[in-house]
Amino acid sequence: MTSILVNGVKREVQAANDTPLLYVLRNDIELSGPQFGCGLAQCGACSVLLNGKEVRSCITPLGAVSDKEVTTLEGLPARWAKQTGLTPEQAAKTLHPVQEAWIAEQTPQCGFCQNGMMIKATELLERVSSPTVADIKEAFTSGVSPHLCRCGTYTAIIQAVQNAATRMRKASQIL
Ligand code: FES
Ligand code: FES
Question: 28 C-alpha to center of ligand 1: Å?
Fold first, then answer.
């Protein structure tokens, strides 16, 4: 039995230490945000935040995360609520600004890659409040591999990241 902290909740899972985190998240914890794309760290569909850094959960063994905080797409609203000090009532009705921006910009086409895109955007915007287009392109193409979208939503993703950045800056001015 291994305990892991996922989206602020401690979970006990019965899986070997070398089981990919993606399998644990989808099969044991029944989360549907992280997607199985390539299984080889080549596409980004499976991304999650590990202590705030984007990792590919398809190649991250369960044993490597037991002392760290995992945040999936489902955990972004609570992450934002905690960062901005929302009450539990407010938090229950809140999406993360990245998710709001993705809806406002109607970014996804088939949607399969968009989990990883939103996770990457969140990681970037927690580090850089006003990213340039070059910053955004760099974030999505650096690291273990570029984030891939077979539908070609790259331009829409850049617009959505800029939209989310504006929302996050506005929220921090209000606080
Ligand atoms: S499924 Fe993990 S990077 Fe493609
Ligand atoms: S929206 Fe279809 S793969 Fe990206």
Answer: 18
Which segments in the chain show pLDDT lower than 50? none
The answer, yes or no, to whether any atom of ligand 1 lies below 6 A from the CB of 24, is no
Distance (Å) from CA 158 to ligand 2 centroid:
14
> pLDDT tens digits, residue range 5-14?
999 999 999 9
Distance CA 74, CA 48 (A): 10
pLDDT at 78: 94
Which helix (DSSP H) or strand (DSSP E) does residue 53 occupy? strand 53-56
Compute CA distances 44 → 49, 58, 72, 78, 166, whole Å. 12, 9, 13, 22, 25
Residue environment code for 38-55, b if the CB has 16+ CB neighbours within 10 A, otherwise e: eeebebbbbbbbbeeebb
In this structure, what DSSP letter does residue 74 have? G
- C-alpha distances (whole Å) from 48 to each of 44, 72, 80, 141 are 9, 5, 15, 16
